[in-house]
Amino acid sequence: MAKSAFSLGQRHPRYTIAFAAFVLCAYWFLSSPTPRPHAVVYRANNDLKARLEREERKYRAMLPQRQDLITRFGPTPAQVVMFPPDQDPWPPYTVWDFFPPLFNCPHELDRLGALGDGGKWMCGISRIQDKPNCVIYSFGIDSSYSFEATLLQSTQFCEVWIYDSTKGEDAQNHIPKPLRHRAHFGKLALGASDRHGQGDDPKTWTLKSLMSENGHSHIDFLRLDVEGWEWETFRGIIRDFTMERVSANPAANANTTGWNVNEREGVLPFGQLQIELHVWNQRFQDFLEWWELLEVAGLRPFHHEINLVYANYNRHSGVELAEYSFLNIRGENAFIRDYVPVSPDGVVAEHQQEPDVRNIRHGPGPE
């Protein structure tokens, strides 16, 4: 005669306890909601501020050396040749020697994307790999999407807005399918003024207007390759987001700061910039003035890579293309300030309900 489970439990109570524990555990496991991933909370990095200050002192000390180099080969900026000819006295420089990337990245330095053409240098990807509301803008794609795809693969919450004047939504096929929900595409050009009416082709947007259209107040990483339009475009960006600090004595300003342009107030709306420079038909004095505008707006170069692919196929014209990476040392972006990330639903991570006042959230808030 078969024994009932009840009689078995009476004879072996330890089995009953074990069975009840199993049932309770199974119920808890099946009924509990799937835990949401929490963004990393960055603690105060006491060394970060000191490292940034040290790099800034070193960078400022370089400015008189640049002026000395101009005096040596000019003696004025208007007399400096971008690429000296192959003839006596063979001055030992190119334009790139005046603009070294001396500001060391205070975090890890990585080259993301494909080897060769397409890969880009980035400072501190760990600072945004778990950061919610992470925003990436990328302008000018050509045929390589390896950098954007690698950024998406390397981060948890980042979304990338990809723009090109010759490509639209069909470009999404270049991004791996599991990542496409975090990639957005638009067929437009970046410029210094807005021209995106019905009859405009290509449609051109300023960075300020495009950010407003997308509802963004801050970009964590900005990438530009706009084929020679970077000079006009970036002057417009600086004009839209910063204001010239007028000096009563411009000559004295140049002597005390090391720059020949007035310093600027305000914060550019991005934490990091990666840009390809095309110096076709550029004069040294114009390039210098443009570069100094970036410097007085708070940008510091930490890496550059000469485009040797272009130089190989255009040996008659000089090394006219170079990619520079800049860190924005102003504001409260993720690369220069510690911050308390907030999860996508707006809830502060459970283990950090009361954030340390020394921690700072990323980016400026809406105006």
TrEMBL record:
Segments forming domain Methyltransferase: 97-238
Keywords: Membrane, Transmembrane, Transmembrane helix
Organism annotation: Polyporus arcularius HHB13444
Signal peptide: none
Pfam hit, one: Methyltransf_22
Matching InterPro entries: Methyltranfer_dom, METTL24
Protein name per UniProt: Methyltransferase domain-containing protein
Listed transmembrane segments: 12-30
